[in-house]
Design a protein that fits this description.
There is one protein chain. The strands form two sheets. This protein has a three-stranded antiparallel sheet with strand order 1-2-3, with no helix packed on it. It has a two-stranded antiparallel ribbon with strand order 4-5. The protein is built from two helices and five strands; from the N terminus they run βββααββ. By secondary structure, the protein is an alpha+beta fold. The longest helix is centred in the middle third of the chain and has 11 residues. A hairpin with a 5-residue loop joins β1 and β2.
Length: about 100
């Protein structure tokens, strides 16, 4: 599973056919690119991405955060009012 949280509003998405490469058109002038191997291989003209992802997978280590789910502010907004959002920690706790 992959989560993409761009810095602006997504206006359009360009997915290269039969590949895992996509470009996002945002409100800004830069066009971010994302490679998601689960969607398909890298295009032939940027095959080096395959090597990069293999190196990252080889170096993958289990961290203490593997079992955690990190929430964005939008995820926490629907939480009932008896809970308090802590800006500095980014977590919520019940006030009961």
């Amino acid at each position: 599973m992959t989560s993409i949280e761009p810095t602006g509003t997504i206006n359009d998405i360009c997915v290269f056919s039969d590949s895992g490469l996509m470009l996002l058109a945002l409100d800004g002038s830069q066009i971010p690119s994302y490679f998601i191997p689960a969607l398909g291989p890298a295009p032939k003209w940027c095959s080096y991405l395959e090597n990069l992802t293999e190196e990252v997978e080889e170096g993958a280590q289990t961290t203490i955060y593997d079992d955690f789910k990190f929430l964005t502010k939008e995820d926490v907004t629907p939480v009932p009012t008896q809970c308090t959002v802590h800006e500095t920690v980014g977590a919520y706790t019940s006030t009961k």
